[in-house]
């Protein structure tokens, strides 16, 4: 996976994008980078990273089991970041994560993040309505094809 493009669709190799965060060699510099690395962690099954980047006040006793269930039952297909707003230690990132669901489902969310002692944490998110995709738009999976010729 090291030389492959990162699942977060940054167009960078995984080894230069989300892997250093997953391996605790770096910290996320901002909320968008953390959100992208969390998407990649869901994609790759990095449960420990997902728990570590969830704010401690939001962790549940069964968090590992819930995350593992999501990972086992969801095939992620692509990510589209729509907005990132940051003010000091608070930030919001709006994104759409696409997943396999007869044929494609969407998780459209405005996520909230906080930075404490230089470390970003995911707090929670508001689920938003699915976005409308045009048949001639680039496919969300990063293939470079039009949606109608790929996942459309």
UniProtKB/TrEMBL annotation:
Residues 30-125 form the YchJ-like middle NTF2-like domain. This is SEC-C motif-containing protein. It comes from Methylophaga sulfidovorans.
């Amino acid at each position: 996976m090291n030389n492959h493009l990162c699942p977060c669709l940054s167009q960078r190799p995984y080894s230069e994008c989300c892997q250093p965060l997953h391996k605790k060699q770096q910290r996320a510099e901002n909320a968008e980078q953390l959100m992208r690395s969390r998407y990649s962690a869901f994609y790759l099954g990095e449960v420990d990273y997902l728990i570590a980047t969830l704010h401690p006040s939001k962790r549940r006793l069964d968090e590992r089991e819930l995350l593992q269930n999501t990972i086992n039952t969801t095939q992620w297909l692509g990510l589209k970041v729509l907005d990132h707003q940051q003010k000091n230690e608070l930030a919001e990132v709006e994104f759409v994560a696409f997943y396999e669901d007869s044929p494609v489902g969407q998780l459209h969310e405005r996520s909230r993040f906080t930075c404490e002692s230089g470390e970003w944490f995911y707090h929670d998110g508001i689920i938003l309505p699915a976005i409308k995709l045009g048949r001639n738009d680039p496919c969300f999976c990063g293939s470079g094809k039009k949606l109608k010729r790929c996942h459309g």
